[in-house]
Design brief:
This protein is of the alpha/beta class and 519 residues long. 48% of the residues lie in helices and 11% in strands.
């Protein structure tokens, strides 16, 4: 038999006999209950074993005493380390790739979960360290203040003398006064050390970073900072300082008298919010497009309400003492670094990073990748793992972390934490509605319920659905596939007539649950 030439897609279809679709189910086969599209994901437990011993002991003890999920104390613990080291250490991976050690963490729990008690227990040593830094800096601040005052007074006297002079000496006196004024302007008064800021405006946080050598931390058991980012005071979202403060990109500071730049800002945020705040975050204008949502490490643990002990075990004094001592020691040691300490990786640790990158990359593939709908977040995860590794390394080697490399074991622990945050991020972004395929599948589901079709074609759906949500027929492919996976639809065999013309539209059986209220 001689093959006939074909000139169009329709000719191509006509050249082949009709066949049944290979993966179809008989129309008479019984239906299983469909799986709800919003079914809660199985979330991983917080891996406390990834933390250094002294930090793990205190984290689990605080969770026990407060009867809260260990996820909350664990996330705050990482933010505490980032407050101590952020802006004072970077991790060199390879080539020009360096990661700072500041983090954004947010843990979502309903009201009544004692978030404030956990924050107080975890952050108290930071306030003590801040107090000690202030005491240590006080003599230098007093000296600089007095020196600046005297220099200004001398310059003012010189200016007064020059203004009243005449003759040939006037020019010399003016020159002398100008020089003294310029010298007085160069005498900077160091800012009083500050590690932590309460919820503040973007402008205030920028000024604090400028005063504190580029670093500051916002630690809060509430989510008011997101209202500020959304523009509560300015009327429009102001994400710049937060985006650049996380990435370490140069940030401009406009002072009343001059303009300054923070070359390497390092903003840390450790937050706990109510789950409904996550919905609001997703609605901040530009938050996803500009990358704000992609910078947070999310945790969405199960609440312990209804399962708490009346008389839990208190935090052992020895465990609390070691935690306080180590957090203060790390903070004071890192505060002395004006240029960041550069942490190197062992070759084995670098291999672990490469393998993690290789494992993550297929998940970002637009064609079926499991994290493609949150690619902005997932593409930053290997960087977050490196940051966490740097913090774990410093926590293990409080006063000598800069003198030895980050090991493969430490990197493996950081990757374990990164995997934990990946599992929770998927659930959080589902809640935010970031999964566009799932959102479109819900729109299709609504159309099926409204029209009570026992079977439906793809063309039928395109007629009923909004063209703004489904501009092309291809936009239906992902939602229909998802509804098949969840048991709402069954594909029917494609029957071709063998004649020229447009191929028939794919057809589906619809679950009786959607067409018969009594099914």
């Amino acid at each position: 038999m001689t093959a006939q030439p074909v000139d169009s897609p329709e000719d191509l279809w006509a050249a082949f006999p009709a066949v049944d679709a290979p993966d179809t189910v008989s129309a008479d086969a019984p239906w299983d209950d469909p799986v709800p599209l919003k079914q809660r994901r199985e979330l991983p437990d917080f891996p406390t074993t990834a933390l250094p011993g002294w930090l793990r002991d205190f984290t689990t003890a605080v969770a026990e005493e407060t009867q809260t999920p260990v996820d909350l104390a664990g996330c705050v613990a990482l933010a505490v380390l980032a407050t101590a080291a952020g802006g004072r250490a970077v991790v060199h991976v390879r080539g020009r790739w360096r990661e700072p050690t500041n983090l954004f963490t947010v843990c979502a729990l309903p009201p009544g979960n004692r978030k404030s008690a956990v924050f107080a227990a975890m952050t108290d040593p930071l306030y003590e360290a801040e107090k000690q830094l202030k005491e240590r800096a006080a003599p230098a601040i007093i000296e600089a203040t007095l020196t600046s005052k005297l220099a200004r007074e001398a310059a003012d006297k010189a200016a007064t003398k020059a203004s009243s002079a005449s003759g040939t000496s006037r020019d010399a006196l003016i020159s002398e006064a100008v020089g003294m004024a310029q010298q007085a302007d160069t005498l900077a008064i160091p800012a009083e050390p500050q590690l932590l800021a309460d919820d503040a405006t973007a402008e205030t946080i920028t000024s604090l970073m400028a005063d504190q050598g580029g670093r500051i931390a916002v630690m809060s058991a509430e989510g008011e900072i997101f209202d500020i980012i959304a523009g509560r005071y300015s009327g429009a979202p102001n994400m710049g300082p937060f985006l650049k403060g996380h990435a370490g990109d140069r940030l401009r500071v406009n002072r009343q008298t001059r303009r300054e730049y923070i070359d390497h800002p390092a903003l840390t945020m450790g937050l706990s919010v109510q789950p409904t705040v996550l919905d609001d975050i997703g609605r901040i204008k530009g938050a996803k497009g500009k990358g704000l949502l992609g910078r947070f490490l999310y945790s969405l643990p199960e609440s312990t309400l209804g399962y708490r002990k009346t008389l839990p075990d208190p935090v052992p004094d020895a465990v609390a003492a070691v935690y306080e001592r180590n957090v203060i020691a790390l903070t004071l040691a890192m505060a002395d670094w004006t240029d960041p300490a550069v942490l190197q990786l062992t070759p084995e640790a670098d291999v672990a990073v490469q393998r993690f990158q290789d494992r993550m990359e297929p998940k970002l593939n637009p064609r079926g990748g499991s994290m493609t709908h949150i690619s902005d977040w997932a593409s930053k995860l290997h960087g977050a793992a490196v940051r966490i590794a740097g913090l774990l390394h410093l926590a293990e080697h409080l006063d000598r972390g800069h003198s030895q490399p980050v090991t493969a074991d430490t990197m493996a622990a950081a990757i374990t934490l990164a995997d934990y945050f990946a599992g929770h991020a998927l659930a959080v972004f589902d809640r935010m509605g970031a999964n566009e395929t799932a959102e479109r599948a819900r729109a299709v589901l609504d159309a099926l319920k409204a029209n009570l079709w026992p079977e439906v074609s793809k063309r039928d759906l395109m007629v009923k659905l909004s063209r703004s949500d489904f501009p092309t027929a291809a936009d239906l492919d992902g939602p229909l596939s998802l509804l098949e996976d969840h048991g709402y639809l069954r594909p029917l065999p494609v029957v071709r007539t063998g004649t020229r013309g447009r191929p028939p539209s794919p057809r589906y059986l619809v679950h009786p649950y959607l067409t018969d209220p009594e099914a």
